[in-house]
Fold this sequence. Notes:
The complex is a heterodimer. Chain A is α/β, with parallel strands linked by helices. Helix content of chain A is 33%, strand content 18%. Chain A has helices spanning 27-42, 67-75, 91-104, 139-142, 152-166, 171-186, 199-204, 232-238, 269-280, 297-307, 315-321, 337-341, 351-361; strands at residues 5-12, 53-57, 81-85, 110-117, 207-210, 212-213, 223-231, 243-252, 289-291, 375-384, 390-399. In chain A, the strands form two sheets. Chain A has a nine-stranded mixed sheet with strand order 3-2-4-7-1-8-11-10-9, with helices on both faces. In chain A, strands 5-6 form a two-stranded antiparallel sheet. In chain A, β2 (53-57), α2 (67-75) and β3 form a beta-alpha-beta unit. By secondary structure, chain B is mainly beta. Chain B has two domains: 1-52, no CATH class; 53-113, CATH 2.40.50. Helices cover 6% and strands 39% of the residues of chain B. In chain B, strands 6-5-4-7-8 form a five-stranded antiparallel sheet. Chain B has a three-stranded antiparallel sheet with strand order 2-1-3. The A-B interface holds A 125-126, 129, 131, 136-140, 142-151, 153-154, 157-159, 161-162, 165, 206-212, 259-262, 264, 386-387 and B 1-3, 7-8, 30-31, 33-35, 40-41, 59-71, 74, 80-84, 86, 91-96, 102, 107, 118, 124.
Amino acid sequence: MKGKVAIVGYGRTPYSRAKPGEYIYTVDEYLAWAADLALQKAGMSKNDFDGQGLAVTHAESAHTVNWAPAVAENLGLSPKAILRGDQGGATAAALFIRASALIAEGVVDRFLVVGADTPLTIPSIAPGLPLSPERTRGIYWDFQGPFGVMGATAQFGLVQQRYMHENDISLKDLAKVGVTTRYHASLNPQAIYRTPYTEEEYVNSRVLSDPMRLFDCVPMVNGGLAYILTSAETAKSICDKPVYLKGFGEMNNYYSGSKVFPDITATGFRVSGPAAFEMADVAPADVDVFLPYDDFPVVVVMQLEDYGFCPRGEGGRFVRESDLTYKGDFPMSTDGGQLSGGQPGGAIGGFMPIVEAATQLRGEGGERQVADATIAVASGFGGITYGRNARSSISLVLGSEG
Amino acid sequence: MPAITDLTQPFWNAARDGKLVMQKCDNCGTVNFPAKPWCVSCGSRDLEWAEMKLTGTVYSFTISRSVAMNYPDWEAELPIVLCLVDVDDGARMYAQLTDCDPEKMEIGMRVQAHFERISEDAGIPKFRPETA
């Protein structure tokens, strides 16, 4: 599939914190808005997708069981192929792979891939968190809440505690990830939080679930994103700057060591990262810009190791010694990530690394443009297993050449 | 309150009676936790609830200083020390650690289980530092 599919358009709506007095857009409006932005960027129209592909990410505010077909109905599209993903923050990347396979096989020529959510304005068992009551049933919840698990900050607080116990990393190193991301957000008008902060302010921010702090957490927002894939042939004829899929890798429900007493600091990127590089015939050193899935700074550091950007156990040192800014030796999270950009619901943030990769490779990064960027890596990371790490890890290698 | 199903009832009843049980695979001996529909190692559906030891080791911990999810009742107990405990000859589980100064928490701490009644049919296991 290498070089057979390309991104020809993308869109990211403005995000909302649903402040009093604001017009509250519905999830359907965000889907249409994101799709519209992507279509405009691509110079295409919605009718180009009748008889083609539509892919939709699951959302907490999905109001119909058959979500993806319902979205087709709401958008007035009649696709030949519909895809729906439910791998949390890895969904946007998962849909990329599935849609690309259908395009490469000639089942369809193109896919409109969309996702939106309004976590701030739906009934939730914890206001401000995307946890709709209908989805929080079963053994997974019954064996966590009553036992003292307070949410994702506690679940990943456990991961970070163990990671810091085993590796040479300090809060200052993690702070640098947040500080750099916020610096990039200050250069990106689309980011939600744009005021730079210092490492000290990160360390002193309110402790939620030790060692997890307020500044470790993504701000929850309402919003939507989309990207458009076509065959390489179509891309060459309609798009002046296609962004090609060069390689991908995926791992789900990864166990490191035994299944009963696994290593919770190991992510599935240990499998998906090298697989994507091998398919793309690209080495970590060839990457011009890295767009990790940044739900927490410690998760970013684990990706640096698991992809092989640095040796295992040296994530802290790599962060200390690298210039992670857009003009540095290892540009990362150049859009401000989800940490400062906002996360539009648990699954939709997964679009952001893909959209920023396309932005950078097309030279549309504005003030935060990485010079001569031709190869980008985007991560998808989603779901949280009981007592371990994420459920899904997906790696995409994208390039301005096939 | 957890939902008690036919599958999980043995766990909650045992905890009410001061016992920690986990499913053990009849085919390969793997301990599965939390309750699984088949053995996550070999796929056998012959999982039997078996009594576990009441001691373990802290694999990791976190100290929650604020409440999230749907558990406002925890507010009064903050800070909550939440651990992942490796139960001796058992499996890893989330559990609250009681009777310990949060500042003294350490990975590798040896702990022992105790139980609290949460309803007519259910108890819940918690841990405290092992007394010498």
